[in-house]
Amino acid sequence: MTDSQRALVTKAVVPAAGLGTRFLPATKATPKEMLPIVDKPAIQYVVEEAVAAGLDDVLMVTGRSKRSIEDHFDRAYELEEALRAKNDTQRLRSVRESSELAQIHYVRQGEPRGLGHAVLCAAGHVGDDPFAVLLGDDIIGDSGALLKRMTEVRAAYGGSVVALMEVEPEQVSLYGCAAIEETGDDDVVVVTDLVEKPPADQAPSRWAIIGRYICDPAVFGVLRETPPGRGGEIQLTDALRELARSKPDDGGPVHGVLFRGQRYDTGNKVDYLRTVVEFACARPDLAAEFLPWLREFVAEQGTPGT
């Protein structure tokens, strides 16, 4: 492998420029990434995952009306002073936590031209280093273990790495799906082809890309030459498809890590609500009061349709 292929992954890119139309009117003035999962914005869980995997340099790709994201990861001196005056150390610690997580940088995506374009906006910051991409809609419940495994696979094989999760046949049209070949590792496959949101009868497999990627810097050159695809957007999937067909000197190959753990999709309303309820039930400070109420509430609803 070349020196570039041996380089450690220390940088993470978090695209956060979407309009959040599925959560209107709540996202008219509040970024969807700032919607709370109990009492912490969704995007903080994503940054915490990156940090747990050893990625302490985080670039947020933002857009208009996203200033509150920057404010959240900045110091809030007046609020901190008010909490200090009240001797409220617990809340003071929670307020400071987000500003001390990582080195966080920002760049704006001038217009919403797709995930591939958002990643391309990170080229100036990333340079010639490999980097991770974490989508804010996906929260992975493993404290960074998936991302750590992906960096290990990158170190072993070079190229790029995607996280793959098996989905039901009726769901494949919602994802980029991969054609795969086995390797000597039970949880690692070679990706030979990628198709963005295929019809169920045309999908190469049921293994779908979820919102975690490790990208070789060669992806930037491919993205610059990638024409808009589905929806008039530049798709990261299309660029990775090209890299999957490339030789190592040209940025290939692409491997997949088969993920069988817990993933929370906060990109739609029902799954967002499920995530909030599950996280609340896992909180020792909330569960004792919340779970009995929840059981009673569900029992009172009865069976749907009765």
UniProtKB/TrEMBL annotation:
GO molecular function terms attached to this record: UTP:glucose-1-phosphate uridylyltransferase activity
Alphabetical list of InterPro entries matching this protein: GalU_uridylyltTrfase_bac/arc, NTP_transferase_dom, Nucleotide-diphossugar_trans
Manganese keyword on record: no
Catalytic activity as recorded in UniProt: alpha-D-glucose 1-phosphate + UTP + H(+) = UDP-alpha-D-glucose + diphosphate
Major enzyme class: transferase
Residue ranges constituting the Nucleotidyl transferase domain according to the UniProt record: 11-274
Keywords, alphabetical: Nucleotidyltransferase, Transferase
Signal peptide segment: none
EC number: 2.7.7.9
Record-stated family: Belongs to the UDPGP type 2 family.
PANTHER family: UTP--GLUCOSE-1-PHOSPHATE URIDYLYLTRANSFERASE
The protein, known as: UTP--glucose-1-phosphate uridylyltransferase
